[in-house]
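Running low. Got one?
___
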Amino acid sequence: MNEFMDTRRRQVLVVDDEEVNRQMLSFILAEQYEVLSAANGVEGMAILKEKKNTIALVMLDLLMPEMDGYEFLRIRHEDEDLRMIPVIVLTSEERSELRTLKLGASDFLKKPYDMPEIIHARVDRLVELTENRRVIQSTERDRLTGLYTKQYFFEYITMRETYFPSHQMDVVALNIEKFHLVNEVFGREFGDRVLKTVAGIISDYLDDNGGFACRSNADWFYLYMECCADYQKMIDSLQMALDRSISEVHVRLRMGVNGVRKDQAEIERRCDWAKTACDTIKDDYTKNLSVYDTAMHEHSLLSIRLINEVDAAILDGQFAVYYQPKYDITGNKPKLKSAEALVRWQHPELGLVSPGTFIPLFEKNGLIQRVDYHVWRTAASQVSAWKKKYDISLPVSVNISRIDLYDPALEEKLTGILEEFGLSHEEYYLEVTESAYVGDQKFIAEAVKRLRRLGFKIEMDDFGSGYSSLNSLSVLPVDVLKMDMKLVQNIHTDYNSLHIAEAVLDIAHFMDLKVVAEGAEEERQVELLKNAGCDIVQGWYFSKPLPPEEFEKLIEAERA
């Protein structure tokens, strides 16, 4: 608890060489305040310095021996700690008011003290105002860096733009790249030193160029400043200053600038846009600056719209499930073996929204689980319908996103879908992208193992697109490898690509895994894959993803 918020009675210091005045003020205030007395300025100043954290107010006579009130005020004014304690000047001379005001006096009481109620009211008011100011000052600054807190940063910007609406100002987001590693490797004390150093560099820059800043949280800083002609030069100068101050390790800064004018959004939104720009260069060590421009703004607006409309889109049936066939090429004639369920968003106003747009977006915020569950049920329903209509068992694989694997109800949901539509595990495969295994590999592996124990077949999707593919194979449970299309695209024109594909097939066969090659578009690609021992091919050579009614033509052609 701050000392000025202490629940003990507040202390008032009366400094007056007339004992009768000290006694009178003590009598007036004693019921509510603890009154301390001093007979001259020297004695009063000693008490004030000793009890500066508990004295709420000073009542000061001007004409005293040894040290008069003017000298007392001057010494108090030059001391940063004492300057915060309000002073009521006790005087009978009106002409002294201007001089004492310049020295920091807060109020005046004229002798003689014949109106106790007024004295009490003015003391109460000044103590309350001062304590409120102290509360504000204790919360407006970040304790570690001395910069504004985010709340007060927003408040001061709002006030400034109210009074100076025509000034063009930018919001800048500054981040310390991988700051959590700095804390982990070098310790929190060193991390705090980095934060304070960055804050000092920011303050020095703004002192020279105008503006103010806040520490938002952890390793994020926001700057409100006049438009800069060369932000690249600015971030480079900040980085150079940091390199000079922190020599033990290279600490990298990255910066995002909101280039959209302020009349388009409130300050919170502009900070979000600056942060969005900054996040676009995360882990990109070729850039340390990104500007939030019109194109990025339009993308952000689209993202917000898609996020807000996902639930309605599911209910309205805007998410359609298409099916891309997989053909077994091990025999003399390719044979329809299975299919992959792929989601498409047919938006009533935006038209066809690319999966490359909404799937990564929904993966970031968890909404992908809702879309996935819709696709899982729709695909299972379709397999069941084809089973009844054509008396065949055509397995369909559905995608399981990384976030789905963290769902404690995942097994129950998938098992419930099979039971609802009367399907077996042989008719319903699960595809997990190779990148989903990166990170918390042990947890993901255990989740996949549980699904396999239930009887599900697991396909590792996009194998070969990630840096950890070979290592993944050694520790992760899978039944089928889906060779990434990037490994297939050039096998008919580039021997190195063909040899890599052959190596993947050899490894898979050694591990007794089936292989599905994705992205085959040329007949020669299919021939080379077959000669190399590939089992199944999926790609536009056979068919693009199709809606159910068109996919049925492939089923009927297979039966003819």
